[in-house]
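Feature request, filed as a ticket because there's no other form

It would be nice if the structure record came with a short human-readable summary line next to the tokens. Right now we just get the raw output. Example of a typical job, pasted below so the devs can see what we mean:
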Amino acid sequence: MPSTVKINDLSQILAPIALDFKALDEVIRQRLASKVALIDQISTYIIKAGGKRVRPALLMLVAKALANGQDTPHTLEMAAVVEFIHTATLLHDDVVDESTLRRGRETANAAFGNAASVLVGDFLYSRAFQMMVGPDDLRVMQILSDATNTIAEGEVLQLLNMNDPEVDEESYLQVIRYKTAKLFEASTELGAILANASDAHRQQAAAFGRHIGTAFQLMDDLLDYTANAAQMGKNAGDDLREGKPTLPLIYLLENGSKEEQLLVRAAIEQNQDLPDDVFAQILAAVQSSGALDYTQAAAKREADLALACIQDFPDNTATSALHALCEYSLARQT
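Raw output as currently delivered:
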């Protein structure tokens, strides 16, 4: 079913759940409340930082698509759970990566310190687990607990890959499937469960989330070398400076000139600040080598696979939005 919305306008794509999104904001605000002042302070800081909330949006859209537009119980609460788990991973990631900028403002660890960020991340995880018992459905708890465990494994895999120029494409894609795509997959599968969908639609929804989540991450890899800080809300080239061998670098290591390969290998292995002139040389090599086209093509394959997963979903505005999100995943600039 072709999309009728502008693929670069996320608010238009998400129009079928605009009212649900407003209600979700209130659920998040209420559920983040704590008697501990620092938790309230950091939680408010996180909420004001914004974010696309793609994962909860996918959960709500899949539920609405498979329920033919009808409201489904527990959807807002489970969408909030997904957002809390995602936000907890970001808080911990920023500490591990020593990041200072996210969504165009100081990271929580930069503003409040590493200890506070880690502990509030723990609070978000535990609050999510308090909430996930709401539907009284063991499938919900299994999906979310498995996803949380897999994400943690992905974090450790990424840590093992840091500063390792021998990481190949398949190893890197495994990190994406664990660390990023798994929560997308959990979100869409939960949407199908909340809509009381068939087992076939549940499996299709899960696969849809896995593929579109991979597409989003691959495009993040690409945008790290093409977008500026104002667009991305973080510092351009952060992945390289942190010694992360993402797909553009893996491609360059396999297909670049001998000089480029040596330069990239040394940059990935370094454990100190990357000089601006070295970063500029690598950036130029990435942009001229075909690495970005290769990464874009990989993302498109995943988006196409995602589209194929929902071909027999009911024909409604929520399904149209899911189609549009596949296009958006490739066309976005942030």
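Something like this underneath would help us a lot:
Residues 169-194 form the longest helix (26 residues).
The mean pLDDT is 92.
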